[in-house]
């Protein structure tokens, strides 16, 4: 279901640019990032969380929040 939702989002929001604003570790193998995604439909604050399992990083959460006034 997540794949379908992401395909729909990106098919109607062509990406123009992305800028990583902040990144860090939250302990116990978890990492996060906050960025600004500029699309054809507006600007989105983008937050993502990864968790390390063995030698791989797995995406736990991906969040898009449209900036107010956009």
Key features of this structure:
70 residues; 66% strand; 16% helix; alpha+beta; single chain
Shape assignment: globular
Q: Total helix count?
A: 1
Q: Let me know the number of strands.
A: 4
Given helix and strand content, the structural type is: alpha+beta
Give the biggest beta sheet.
4 strands, antiparallel
Strands of the widest sheet, in order across it, are: 1-2-3-4
Mean pLDDT equals 92
Query: What percent of the residues sit in helical stretches (DSSP H or I)?
Result: 10-25%
Strand content: over 45%
Which radius of gyration do the C-alpha atoms yield? 13 Å
The H-and-E topology, N to C, reads as HEEEE
Distance between the termini: 27 Å
Low-confidence stretches: none
Please outline what is shown here.
The chain has 70 residues and is an alpha+beta fold. Helices cover 16% and strands 66% of the residues.
Present the secondary structure layout.
Blueprint: H1 2-12, E1 15-27, E2 30-39, E3 42-53, E4 56-66
Antiparallel strand pairs: 1-2, 2-3, 3-4
How does this structure look, described?
This protein is of the alpha+beta class and 70 residues long. It has 1 helix and 4 strands; from the N terminus they run αββββ. Strands 1-2-3-4 form a 4-stranded antiparallel sheet, with no helix packed on it. β1 and β2 form a beta hairpin. The longest helix has 11 residues. It is globular and about 40 Å long. The N and C termini lie far apart (27 Å).
């Amino acid at each position: 279901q997540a794949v379908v939702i992401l395909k729909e989002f990106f098919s109607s929001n062509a990406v123009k640019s992305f800028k990583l604003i902040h990144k860090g570790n939250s302990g116990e193998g978890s990492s996060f990032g906050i960025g600004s995604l500029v699309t054809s439909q507006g600007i989105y604050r983008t937050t993502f969380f990864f968790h390390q399992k063995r030698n791989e990083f797995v995406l736990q959460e991906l969040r898009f929040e449209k900036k107010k006034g956009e």
